[in-house]
Sequence to fold (415 residues):
Amino acid sequence: MTPTSSSPDDSAHEHDGPPPARLAYDRHTWKEIVHLLSDLPVALAGFVYTVTMVAVGAGLSVTVVGLPLLAGGLAGVRVLGRWERARARALLGVRIDEPSPLPLRPGTGLLGRLWSGLKDPVAWRTVLYWFIRLPWAVLSFTVTLVGLFVLWPVLPFVVRGMTNADRAMVRALLSPSDELERRIAELESDRGIVVDTAAADLRRIERDLHDGAQARLVALAMGLGLAKEKLLEDPDAAAAMVDEAHGEVKLALRELRDLARGIHPAVLTDRGLDAALSSVASRCTVPVQVTVDLPARPAEAIEGIAYFTVSELLQNVSKHSGARTASVDVWRRDDRLLIQVRDDGRGGASPSGGTGMAGLAERLGAVDGLFVVDSPDGGPTAVTAELPWRDRAPRLGGETARAGARPGRPGTSSG
Fold:
């Protein structure tokens, strides 16, 4: 048989897979033959690596180095899978998306990274691929090699059938179909973070109430009791004690207001992010320029996370940055809410630096957010947070209040 000329729509076939087999040795058939002949050495190398990796890692799992070796071997299997997908794209026309990288949260420790690598579903599916691949590669290589001399007239049909089996194997074991399972695992991890964060917040509130307002109110009750006893015996002393109790009441009210603001500030509920962030900025020890450019108010949960993120970052600016000025910018891009806090301080900030940034990164990650710190030594520092935009549910009896609804440039206020 003589080779046929390529048709004008060959490029389309290149993307959609080869055309139906026919009695002709076109370029698709030759690519498939090359793929089948290269199957044996490729499958042999993948099989040897996989068996060695699993055997050594599992055998040494009772020692300190066993599990890290196994996790490293699985990372190598991922690389082999990427190369195999590239070979399938080049020779079989199989277009498969690359699986997403392992989800590693900021601040994840060594054991967390190790466990994430050991339970990587992409790597384990690739391990299964190389175990199945070798016997099939021996068969397909032998049939193709013999067919070049014996089955020449019908070889295109034989080759097409075997490469279709290859395509099915690649799609079944090397495609990112495990994303649902990984997403479930991420959600379970995020749920744990949310539960831990909520428990920590409850403990903080209980501690603040017990050590602050509650202790002050107990002292106030005792002082008023003593004043009552002295009211007839020593009116002047009783008046002084009542005056002191009045001061204690003011301090208790201030502590309760601060505590309520830490749970959820009223200004955020009533007036939105623009006013709430301006209020936070006014308490910062350096001048802060606040710019909020939002067409509407996001969902209450997203709005609250944005508020507390900026509040924590501005506390870091006050305590650690040594800055002279700072700025807060909030805007929406497509379906994301973006926040950037900048300062001209000394820099060197890091999520692992013990300034609460690791906790912020975890909270944002729990709602599919991102947290990026750019803080070279000497400054300036720019912290960017990204949250998913979710529309605010309408309130019963009226429309939801809108923050920053002015078109064009955002409203600007100074702290």
